Every structure is written in C-alpha cells, then in structure tokens.
Amino acid sequence: MKYSYYPGCSLEVTAKPYDASARAVSQALDINLEEVEDWNCCGATSYISIRELISFAISARNLALAEKKGKDLVTVCPACYTVLNKANIYINEKEDIKKTVDEALAVANLKYDGTVRVRHLLDVIVNDVGLEKIKPRIKKNLDGLKIAPYYGCQISRPYGTFDDPEFPMTMDNLFSSLGAEVVNFPLKANCCGGILMTTEPEGSLKLIKDLLFCAQDNKAELIVTACPLCEINLEGYQKKVNKKFKTNFSIPPIYFTQLLGVALGLSKEKLMIGKELVSSEKVLDRFYGGKR
Amino acid sequence: MIETKEKLNQTFLEDIYSIPDGEKLKTCIQCGTCSASCPTSYLMDYTPRQIISFFRAGMLDRVLKSNTVWMCASCYFCTVRCPSGIKLTDIMYELKRLGIKYKIYPPKNPSPVMAKIFVDTINQFGRSAETVLLTLFFLRTKPFKILDFIPLGWGLFTKGRIATSNKTIKGKDDLVKIIEYIEKKGVA
Predict the structure, then answer these.
(1) Best of B93, B182, B184, B187 to disrupt the A interface by mutation (most A CBs within 10 Å)?
(2) Cα gap A147→A182, rounded to integer Å
(3) Residue B29 touches chain A, beta carbons under 8 Å
(4) ipTM of the complex
(5) Using CA atoms, how far apart are residues A244 and A239, in angstroms rounded to an integer?
(6) What does the alpha-carbon distance between residue B113 and residue A132 come to, in Å, rounded to a whole number?
(7) What angle do CA B61, B67, B73 make, to 5 degrees?
(8) B103 in contact with A, Cβ within 8 Å
(9) Residues in chain A with pLDDT values less than 70
(10) Closest among A91, A56, A33, A16 to A276, alpha carbons compared
(11) Residue B132, SS3 per DSSP
C-alpha cells in the first residue's frame, strides 16, 4: 500500500517521536509512506485566523505536490488533517475559491485538479490494513495495560471522516483487540486547550487538569494520543498543573503509533520511547524485559 | 458617525455571509448549544451564543473588543452540534480576521499577536519554527513570562525535541508568489 506522507511542522521538532514511530509502524505494516517533497506548513489555526484564502492556497500547494504522485495524502497531525481537508473540500465545492487558488498556484507553475484524498494514519492502519492483517504481526500482547485513548478535537471534528465526532472509538477498538484494557475515559474527545495553553496558560490549565484527573481517577497507566499539541500540553504542563491545583499527577502521554509499535515488537529506540518529559519507562519496561 | 458605524456593520455582515456557509448565521435560534458545548466559555467575556446575538444586533464593538473570539480553541464542538448547521468555528475565524483587518481587538490579549507572528514565520521559512515563534511571542507580549517556559524548553532540549536552527523550504519563493498573488487581488 502506497501513500504520500505529510509530516507537518511539529513532527520535525517537539513531536519527533510521533514521526519516528509513525514511520516505523508503517514500515512494519507494509504501508509505504513517501514524504511529499518540500512541503510547506499547512497554516494551522493561525493562518486562517488572519487570511482565509491564503490559508487555502498554501494548503493547495501541498495538495498539488501530492497530486503529482497520485496517491492518498496521509498525515498524523489532526490540525494538518483538518486544515488540508478543509482546503480540499472548499477548493472542490466552491467555484470562486477554486478559481482564485488555481490562479495563485499557476504563478508558481503548479496545478491542482482536486483529486487528492486527505487521510489520517490511524484511519489507514485500521481501515486499509485492518485488524486481521495486523494481528498476525503482533509480537507482544498488551497484557492488560490500562490505557486512556485520548482523541482530542480535530481528528474527528468537524469532518468525522472515519470516526464519530462525539465519541470516537477507533483507538479503543484497536488497542483492546491487542490486549490492552481501555479504561472509562469520558473526556476522550474534549479539548486540551490547543494554542491557548501558550497564550493563556493560567486560564486553560484547568482543561489539562480535568483530563489528567479523569485518566488517573479511572486508573489509566498511560494516555494514548494522536495529536502533537495534545501530547505536549498533557506532558509539558503536568508540573504546572500539580503546582496550581496541588495535585500529584504523573501520567505519561504517548503516541498511538508508539504503543502500536510496542505491540509490533519494535525497539524503544526506533519508537523514540524515553524521549517524553513524563517518563513512560515504569509502565512500558515490562514489554522490554523488565518486571511488571 | 452613526452612518459610518452602520456602514461598517453592513460590511461585517456581508463579510460573514460571504464565507462558505456563512449565511446560515441568519438561522441561529439562540438555543445555546454552542455555549454549553464550548470548553473555553468559562474564559470568555461573552458566550458564543451571546456573540451571535450581539453581532446580529450590530453591536460590533462589544463583539470584537471582547476576548471571546480569541479564546476559541477551534475544537469544533459547536460546529458539529449546532441544530441550524452554523459553522461557528469558521465564523469565529472570520471575526478574528475582521478584528485584525480593522484593528479592533482586546488590547491586552496575546492571541492576535501570536497569530500574526505565526503567519510571519511561515512567510519567512515556509514551515513553522516553534523556537522562533515562541521567543518572538514572549518578547512582544510578556517578556518576563519567558522564564516560566524555560523549564519546559530545557526539558525538550535535553530530549532532542527542539530545533537549534531553522531550514527554509526550497520552494519558499513559490510560496511567497502564491501568497502575494492573493494579497494583490485583495481578497485574502
């Protein structure tokens, strides 16, 4: 199975472990990811806050580059996923937007016919590869590991292409079928605060506190995320939450690709496990020869 | 004065109605599902439902000078739940754009600064440069708060998760041409 791959900006820096584990897991599952050459930022939520059409046009450059290869465009960052999808939908549905974007692309000798499908890697793994083909490759049963799958917002909202916008289940089903125990986590599709954690940290710490409380109260050993911003907010602000709310949370968030990689028998180094700020060692060492 | 204000109001309404599916704003029934669904409404001067109401009543200053639109975290709960199919998240984006265009936003709110710096870094490198972005953001908003971020920055640095230099994409000139074309057209 061949796809074009759009890592997105966070995956080059703070979310390197997501990129490394996404590539490693894809390789192990015979998903061939070819990185879009010379991709640019999708614009995220900030560009569209300033210029709408420009944000569609810069996304269209990525779509045009991907279209040359004729494959689905896979990303792992839910913000990129939503932004690229939004641009794609409007370019295909609204003639005035298409016209201006076409003209702008032409200035850079590019052309976009609207044929690219924007996908999330989770969707590809679960729906294109499928559990039946994943299971024979599993080397380690997740053995009752208690996890809280955390979806956040933009992986299923507003588009909900492959999962429910209110109560997503893809990660729950994937990991419970690999032996993990999915704890009750009613806040799984709630917001982590996104960029507000940087601009308004005092006010939005409450959102992180609520998520950590919900996971810990339900005895989760790990939070499993699919979003670079959720991940950094959950781990990077745990100390601040503990200070402000007099709590003692110590619960590592890791990427779904890292946990899937553990089950596929991939090494810690390949998955960049150990690069988190709230260590997952105690929890994951049992899969690497340590005691439970 | 009143005439100008009315004109401005008309411009704003037309602007909102011109974004994809923007006209649906007319069908708001003020049920408050958006406000009840909003995870950050507790941080807002006015709730999302009130913002729609003020906006339709022409109380633009109240809308744009409040912190509400800048507290939207783009979670899209309101959008997927609105019984009238209003894409409120997109309308919040449009209100941010109008606020920036007409320079009407809450003076001390750091979010408009963040948005502008983000756009500048994309225009400069073609990709987001988190270190540059955050440094500029703190320098321009609350320099002393940078100290609060040092532990997090250091932690990420020791884990090899911070960029020490920034690459510029090869097609940056193309990207700039695309952006400039739309800017020149005046419809950005």
Answers:
(1) B182
(2) 5
(3) no
(4) 0.93
(5) 9
(6) 49
(7) 130
(8) no
(9) 291-292
(10) A16
(11) helix
Q: What whole-number distance in Å separates Cα of residue A105 and Cα of residue A168?
A: 36
| Closest listed residue to residue A20, CA positions, set A265, A280, A285, A261 | A261
CB contact under 8 A, A239 and B151: yes
Inspect the interface and report whether the beta carbons of A41 and B128 lie closer than 8 Å: yes
Per-residue CA distances from A40 to A44, B119, B174 (Å) = 11, 12, 11
The two tokens of residue A87 are 């641009």
Q: Which two tokens stand for residue B176?
A: 């700039």
From the list A206, A204, A251, the residue with the least C-alpha distance to A231 is A251
Write out chain A residues lying below 8 Å of B160, CB-based.
16, 275
Q: Which of A63, A59, A74 is nearest to A4 (CA)?
A: A74
Which class for A113: exposed (0-12), middle (13-18), buried (19 or more C-beta within 10 A)?
A: exposed
Q: At what angle do helices A95-107 and A52-67 cross, to 10 degrees?
A: 70
- Burial bucket for residue B57 (CB in 10 Å: 0-12, 13-18, 19+): exposed
- How many residues in chain A? 292
Summarised one tens digit per residue, pLDDT across range B13-67 is 888 888 888 899 999 999 999 999 999 999 999 999 999 999 888 888 899 999 9
Residues of A in contact with B115 (CB under 8 A): 46, 49-50
Query: Measured at the alpha carbon of residue B140, what is the angle toward residues B135 and B142, in degrees to the nearest 5?
Result: 85
Tell how far CA B61 is from the center of its chain: 17
Note whether A222 and A189 are within 8 A (CB): no
In angstroms, rounded to a whole number, what is the distance separating the alpha carbons of residues A247 and A264? 35
Burial of residue A163 (number of CB atoms within 10 Å: 0-12, 13-18, 19+): buried
CA-based torsion, A54, A3, A162, A198: positive or negative: negative
- With contacts defined as CB-CB under 8 Å, which chain B residues touch A48? 93
CB contacts, 8 Å: B80 with chain A: 157-158, 160, 165-166
Answer yes or no: do B118 and A44 touch at CB < 8 A: yes
Enter the tokens of residue A186. Answer: 């009613």
Tokens of A63: 């779509």
Instruction: Check residues B129 and B32 and name the one with the higher pLDDT.
Output: B32
Which amino acid, one-letter code, is at A178? L
The pLDDT value given to residue A40: 95
| Token code pair at residue A220 | 């989760």
Kindly report the pTM of this predicted structure. Answer: 0.94
